[in-house]
């Protein structure tokens, strides 16, 4: 794309003003670049060149160029520069002799935390790398106090996909000048002139990831509250990137904290990491969603060298900082940890992060089994307590709401729980006391266990598949448990089927037709434990002989 000419000829006193307020797009290979507002040219002391000083927020740029500058009709020329940032961090970059500075990368969305939000659309604060910083400087990309507007939330459709924009600068996204043509395509040919992809060759792309913390207040989140739930090995390599979402449970009060994570290979430049937090919410939640197994989440370890991979839920990789690291790799040794199979991350949705679905717990389950397929998560209710019916030795400690929920799920005697959202106490309960108001409390239930909802043992397991035939009625249901309950309440219903593809249809059925797993978009189950209740009726025959017959009528417990 033709660029706007920004230079004037050098005048007699060797000073030229450059009035440049706009960015331009160079090509899709760089996903946008940041603007510099150049101030002036002046002679070098040695007289052999000209230095350019530019001021841009906290950064100062010194660029040495040939003595004869290109005129208004001249082309750009690449030269080497160093960008000096606060904290004495130096990053070698390439810069054309225009109002452009090579940047790094971040995701961009109205839901991100961003202290530079007011700079619209030109902003690259979130794309700045994190390296050799204190915990307070690198955690949350130093954006804890700069949340998005209350209605700006990134939706994560459970068992679906979500697109996110990746760029060096917010100005080159849909929040600015718009996306490039074919934003899902990687650059072809691969062009490394600008370096912000940190991958000299196509095969050097290292992988990026999404993590989620089941807390709705950013100040409550700790590093180990995040669990990686989706990974793309070939990332960053395109401006519009798709992430697969696993079968995540609902967020407390419709709001979780998420973050984008990226570490490039050491061959791509200075060792550093990237973290862009944002507000998220899980949508299309299914009734069979299980809690994330936070109790067994661990940092990954390199496993392409004969060592075993860490299985199950993994926390993000924190690395190359002055404090707060959880990865042992030494910087500047060409051994950066990365989000791909070398560290046990499969491509796509991380389906091994849930309770009962990983091997990090070495066969243990923190107090009991999960009671099989009929055990289901109930609602998560913020500012709600469930007083009474505490199990022995309560409270215990939990890192967050999801951890408390998973501890209850893992204990076969636990039917509900309550978490101190202003601290770390977690109460497991052997019943389901009535929910009531409670400050600093979030609580919930585990359904399908003995005594729940006065229907102990009434349900068989919820299974994937349909039960064709024997239709009794077609009704609407909020989820599979709601469909299950409607069958329980309906006289003559012995089984049910629920539409998992979002249409909310619930088929109530007489009897218990066989399971057909070839039918998509269906979950189904049966209602068990029918009892016989004696009924006595009088029958008078034609010869006036009175008979008394006793029969049975099936009713559910």
TrEMBL record:
InterPro entries: LPMO_AA14 (IPR054497), Pan_app (IPR003609). This is Apple domain-containing protein. The keyword Glycoprotein applies. Belongs to the polysaccharide monooxygenase AA14 family. Its cofactor is Cu(2+). The keyword Signal applies. Signal peptide: none annotated. It is found in: Secreted. Keywords: Copper, Disulfide bond, Glycoprotein, Metal-binding, Monooxygenase, Oxidoreductase, Secreted, Signal. The lineage of its organism: Eukaryota, Amoebozoa, Evosea, Variosea, Cavosteliida. Transmembrane segments: none annotated. Residues 466-509 form the Apple domain. Residues 355-391, 447-469 are annotated as: Disordered. One of its GO terms (cellular component) is extracellular region. One of its GO terms (molecular function) is monooxygenase activity. It comes from Planoprotostelium fungivorum. It holds the Pfam family LPMO_AA14.
